[in-house]
Each structure stands twice: as C-alpha cells, then as structure tokens.
Amino acid sequence: MPGTAFDATIDRGGPDTVIELHGDVNRAAQEGLARAYDEAEGGPGRLLLDFVDVDYINSTGIALIVGVLARARAEGRDVGAFGLTEHYRELFQITRLSDFMTIYDDQRAAVAAGS
Amino acid sequence: MQLRRRQKTETTEEIPEVDPVTATSMESQATIPVDDPLHAYLVSVASPVEIADLDLESETLETIRESGVEVVIPLIGQGDLMGALYLGGRLSDQPYSTDDRKLLSSLAAQVAPAMQVAQLVREQQAEAKERERIQQELQVAALIQQTLLPKDLPQRIGWSVDAFYRPARSVGGDFYDFIDLDDGRLGVTIGDVTDKGVPAALVMATCRSMLRAAASRHDTPGAVLAEVNDTLVEEIPPAMFVTCLYAIIDTRSGSMTIANAGHNLPYIRTENGVVELRATGMPLGLMVEMPYEERSFTFEDGDVMVLTSDGITEAHSPAGEMYGFGRLLGRVAAPVTDGDMVGAVVQDVENHTGPDAEQEDDITLVVVRRTASAEEAAEVFDSAFDVLATFTVPSEEGNERLAIDQMASAVGGLGLEEARLERLKTAVGETVMNAIEHGNEYQANLDVGVLVEASDQSIRVKVSDHGVDNDIDDAVTPDLEAKLAGEQNPRGWGLFLIGEMVDEVNTISDNGLHTVELVMNREGGR
After folding, report:
1. pTM of the model as a whole
2. Hey, is the C-beta of A45 within 8 angstroms of any chain B C-beta?
3. Chain A interface, mutation test: which of B399, B484, B487, most A Cβ atoms within 10 Å?
4. Per-residue pLDDT tens over the stretch B209-236
5. Of A3, A63, A70, the CB nearest to B486
6. What interface predicted TM-score (ipTM) does this complex get?
7. What is the pLDDT of residues B288-309, one digit of tens each?
8. Chain B touched by A29 (CB under 8 Å)
9. Measured between alpha carbons, how far is B485 from B372 in angstroms, rounded to an integer?
10. How far apart (Å, rounded) are the C-alpha atoms in residues B285 and B174?
C-alpha cells in the first residue's frame, strides 16, 4: 500500500504517558493505535500524542483520534498533542478536535505545561 | 462698546481707580438701545455731542448724565452706531475747546473703521476655523468611503462590470459593492445613506459589513436585506436610513434575482427596450421585520443593467429642473459609443447640470453587461483551463496517496501557496478515497479517473468513479460531542473536510460516470 506504514511506541518514563505515532494515520493505523492505547492505559499523567513522525492523516485517521479521545474521556484522562504540521493543526481546529485536547508546539511545551 | 475717561475728583489731582461695581453697573445702564431716541440722534449727528443741554426724551441720556458724562462721541461705521466714547469733565475744569472736539472727532473717525476691521478679522478667523473643521471632517468621510469601495471590478467570463463613483464636495453616503458568492454567483449592491459627512460614512461602513455578512448566510436577496434591516434598526442613529438594492447574478446561467430597499429602480436595456425591475421594500434601518419583495430577470447576450444613486436622478439644471428618471431611461435606451454606458450617463447628467455646476450629491453608477451567451461563456470558461495532468488509480485501499502525489506534482509549477496546496491535497485525497470506497466499492478493475486543470484564476481537479447511483449527500458538520459520547459513528468526516478545504465543490453525473469537481482559487478566497 502506498504511503508509510503505521507504528506506535509508548513512553511511560516521564510524568505523562506519550504515544509516539509513526507513519500514516489512516484506516491501516486502526489496530496499531488501539493496541498503543491499551498499552498506555494506566500509565502516568496525561496522555500525549506525538505526531512529529506523522505526515499524513486522513478522515479515517481523524475518526481514530476521535476514538482515542472518547476512550480517554471515559477514563477521565486529559489528552494533549504535539508535533502537528500547520495544516493538520488547522484540520484539528476545523474538526474541533482541538477543543477537546490541548495542542502544543513540541514535546518540551507539552511537558512544561504538565509540570 | 463704551470707552470712559476716568472721572476727576474735587480733592486730588490724582486719578483714582474706578470702583468695579460702579463701572459694571454704569456699563449696563449706559448701553444705548436701538429704539432709544439718543441712538438715532447720535447716528444723525455723527460727531461729538455735549449732552448737558441736549433735550431728548431718553432714559439712557439721563443715566449717562447722572454718571457725570459731559460729551458723547459716537463711533459710526457704515452708518451704524458701533459704540460711543463717554467723556466726563476735563481735569482742568475748563470746557472742551474747539480743538479738543476736532481732535476727538478725528479720533472717533479712526477708531470706528479700526473697530470694524477688528470685528471682521475676528469673524473671519472663526469662519476659517469652522471651515477647517468641516474640511477635516469631509476628508475623514471621503477616506472612509474610498477605503471601503471596491478597488477592483469583478472579472467574469461572459460579463463586463463597470462602476463610477464621484463624491459631492460634502461627501454623501453612497456605496456599491461586489460580493463573490459560491457556484459562480455574484452579489451586486448599491446603496445610499441619508445624511452626509462622517455620520453617513460610518453608517455606510457598518451597512456594507452587514450586507457582506448576511450575503454569506442567505441565498436570496430578500432574506439578505431583511437581516441587514433588522440588525441596522438597532444600530442606526435616529432620522437616518439607508436605501439599498441587492442583486444576485448567476454568472453561468445569466439569471438574476433582486430585492430593493427603496433604492432607485434598476434599468435593464434589452433587445426589446428597457425593463424596469420593480421590487418593493422599505429603506433599511426604519422598522424591524420588513418584507423585501424579490424580482427575477434572465440576461440575454448584450443586455445591460444600469444601477444608479439619486445623485444622478436628482441633479438639477441651472433652471432648477431635475435630471429625473425619464431622462435616465431615455439615456439607457439610446445607443452608446464603444459600449461605454457609464461614460454616456455621466456625460448626459453633466450636459443637464451645465459645466460649472457644483455637484449636489454623490454620483454612483454600476453597470453590468452580459457579453456572451451561456453556451459561449461556458466554452470560453472551459478553454481558459489548461490540462495539467490526467491519470487513473485502481480502486484499492490507500491509493488516494498516489492521486495526491501526482496532483501535487502536476500543480507544482503554479506557485500555489503552501497552506493552500496542503488543503487541496487533503480535498483530493478524501475525494479519491470516497470514489474508491463508495463509488467503485473497492473493485480493483474499476479505475478512479483524475483530471487536473488550471486557469489564471483557479485550479480544478475532477475525480470520476463508476458509481453513478452513488450520489454523495451534502456535507454536514459532524457532531464531535455526539461522536465522543458514542452516540454517532466516529467516522463521517470526509465530505465535511472536502467542503472546508476548497473554494467550490460540484458534482456531475454523466455517461456512466460520477464526477466530483474541486475548485481551488489560486489567490484570495478561502
């Protein structure tokens, strides 16, 4: 399939739990993202989504992120995101995702906001 | 004005200060009313008068005498009594000599004109200050108006649009505007605020913004004017209102609908004579919940619509006769040189008012002409686009990425701004995904066709699939709250995103193909 295959790694070493996303966030990312969330569940602090290594998000990917937000809300856990390109920041605003998660410029800003 | 010599005292040669209370009371009592016989007498003699033996029935005369005045010297300017000098007795107790009187007389003769000049200078200074204030106010009003009137005329294939605006010296509240609407429609508005100067300019600015905002919310001109009216009633100063005409022209089909809030009627010259499009409606800002009637018209090739402000119809000739609707109608109906309707009407009004007449009110004129039929315009419209790329992608998951990359490389040389390119990429990706998933239902033997074209103004991407019956519903704004609460499918973002990313989305079903056309303006727009 064209594009970059999705993968996610979890960093629970800091005050917050970070899901590092790699590759395309589209339908093919569904399983990987669900698994990553399972792993992140119960981790420390807020849930931070790291988009530094993501350069494609489509409408199905948006739906997956809505799913992550819904799960975090059920857990009563705050969600943040960083590393989005200008375009995807705009997309998160248009879709109002940014009303339900805090968008930071980079990881440093995200961590600083939590401490 | 009164001038008094200090009174001598019996006991000393020194001149004491006059008690201010006494002076004030004397001042008020010694004013010579115009109807007092002394007034007329002083004007008639126009020279120093010894009042001791003067026999007049005058209260003022008595008052002056009692306060010790002996001689009154009238100050006459252009036959009017401007003031008087009151003199008491001489310090030497001697009567005033002939020489004294001559001296006083010639002094009075010089004081009066000097006073007159001083008075004139003061008046002129005040006038100049007032003129400067008015001038500054007019400059502000003119600046507001010039800033808000359109800088460019709309360029539409198959149409020519022309406009003229000339403010009166006092700057009225005329305005006109062109509003780009979706689906090739053009909003045209012309209006006039009662009153002049800064207040009119401010109301004009407010009204223009309200019209633009309402135009983006409503599809019909009547609804636009009704909304502006209801909002304006709250904002507008008392005794002010706005006449305004709003027309929505479909530049593709040539059809137009207008609503009119008490503005001059539009005249449309057709092959069969001039059509007056009469739609009734109250001026804006007077009363809430006013209905605005709508009238429609379809332009044929060569039809010309002329919109005017009352500065044209109410321009007077030197004999005081108004230019009027009859003359305007005649001028619109008559042939014009080089198609210059604006020039022809303005010239006709100037012929009527005469060369030296000062313009009484703002003159505003908007002329819209259909220059080509719908078919011709469509051909020109199509030929104005260059094909940049055509390609197909098989209907397999993820192939929208191929389409995005090929489209991006096709438009790479156009210098499209980065943010705009990213939006187009997302729109094309989502459209191709829909075609793969819903149109061709993942049947790998069915291709999705993509055509990328560009004109000077815009980029057009057509995405075709084989799902003729698979009509795409109108994009709706997904409800994120409901999705988060699990009450709505988390998906359903595609059409919404497409609509948000580009300037225009059209769908066409033909020849067994379903085509979605995405239009992205190369500049301006979204």
Report:
1. 0.47
2. no
3. B484
4. 999 999 999 999 999 999 999 999 988 9
5. A70
6. 0.93
7. 999 999 999 999 988 999 999 9
8. no
9. 55
10. 16
